[in-house]
TrEMBL record:
Keywords, ordered alphabetically: Membrane, Transmembrane, Transmembrane helix
Pfam families named in the record: DUF423
Family: Belongs to the UPF0382 family.
Lineage: Bacteria, Pseudomonadati, Pseudomonadota, Gammaproteobacteria, Pseudomonadales
Organism, scientific name: Pseudomonas benzenivorans
The protein's name in its UniProt record: DUF423 domain-containing protein
Record-linked InterPro entries: DUF423
Amino acid sequence: MARLWLLLAALAGFTGVAFGAFAAHGLKSRLSVDHLAVFQTASHYQLIHGLALFGVALLARQVPGRLMNLAGALFALGILLFSGSLYLLALSGYSRFGIITPFGGLAFLGGWLCLGLAAWRRT
């Protein structure tokens, strides 16, 4: 599973940087200030949790187990739901995508909780 988390971390990092640059250079004149801020928030959280996935990938070999894999899965799900819904909201202007965002936030919180529990249980 460590390989999967590392691949997802690389994908999240690559696309997070690409989307952030796209927003700063390609979308600045096309989106409202509010929608640009939403897009940048999505990119910011994607990059942070891409690094969290990288940490899970590194730790998965030393602290194997269900909690570590659940942390990785929840971070990946959080990126998809939280950042993905914000990207869609910013690009489309359709505010209903915002309904999905809190579920991604809960996935992020669950990932951090699982990571903490894995550390707590480590002997």
